[in-house]
Design goal:
alpha/beta; 8-stranded parallel β-barrel; 47% helix; TIM Barrel
Length: 261
């Protein structure tokens, strides 16, 4: 069976923006279909801050593959075992938080790529092939090519090392975690601060230099989103399920209450 396309990676390679729908609370297998229907390209399955088990993340990955939206799993820092199990069970990409150094980037890239590019172990039937993979060497080469590995840039140290991290073979995208970055800078929540703007420019420039994809997370207001996307950010976390539900529900309740005084 042919490999199931990585919709998010295809859009990035075509120079398009790829939009992520964050899942922290919703566990139903309808979640990928809802996100796809809303116009998103990848489902951000958050095992770092969400309370997902590996089993629950797997079910969302399987459902995403059939819904035509890319399942991308964020694991906890240094949780390489969770990452490899996610990839073995349908994830088309991983987001790794707090990648501060090129040494960390190289370790991540090696762990999540099959030889000769890395050290990932072969686990047999792979969901990305509908459990009917081609011969092992061919399957591993295709999966290496179609797996998106994202390093999160969340500290000033990481920004300073952005060029070396972006230059690491096997790292495809540098995603700025703006909330944690502003906290590390001592300016929590100030996404338009000159230091944050300088960080975005540095990361975007590093990605352009090395042919990688710059990403944006933690930016939910229109002014800053417009700024950083216009500068070149492509891999965009658009928000999370809890935020989407509360915002839409609040607006609806406000409207309905307005009808009755």
């Amino acid at each position: 069976m042919a490999i199931i396309p990585n919709v998010s990676l295809d859009r990035l390679r075509a120079g398009k923006v790829s939009l992520g729908f964050g899942a922290s609370h919703l566990r139903t297998v309808a979640t990928p279909m809802l996100a796809k229907s809303a116009g998103f390209d990848w489902l951000f399955i958050d095992m770092e801050h969400g309370a997902f088990s590996v089993h629950e993340a797997t079910q969302l990955c399987f459902a995403s593959l059939t819904a035509g939206i890319s399942p991308i799993v964020r694991v906890c820092f240094d949780a390489l075992d969770e990452g490899t199990r996610a990839l073995d069970n349908g994830a088309q990409g991983l987001v790794i938080p707090h990648v501060d150094t090129p040494e960390q980037a190289r370790r991540i890239a090696a762990a999540f790529r099959y030889p000769p590019r890395g050290t990932r172990s072969w686990g047999g039937g792979i969901a990305q092939f509908g459990f009917l993979p081609p011969p092992v060497a061919e399957a591993q080469a295709q999966i290496n090519s179609e797996t998106l590995i994202v390093a999160m840039i969340e500290t000033e140290e990481a920004v300073a090392n952005a060029d070396a991290i972006a230059g690491t073979d096997g790292i495809d995208c540098l995603l700025i975690g703006t909330s944690d970055l502003t906290a590390d800078m001592g300016i929590s929540g100030q996404a338009d601060h000159p230091k944050v703007q300088a960080a975005y420019k540095a990361v975007i420039d590093a990605c352009k230099k090395h042919g990688k994809f710059p990403g944006m997370g933690g930016i939910y207001d229109e002014e800053n989103a417009r700024r950083y996307i216009s500068w070149g950010c492509k891999f965009i976390l658009g928000g999370s399920d809890g935020m989407f539900i509360t915002q839409a529900a609040t607006a609806r309740a406000k409207f309905l209450n307005s009808l009755v005084g």
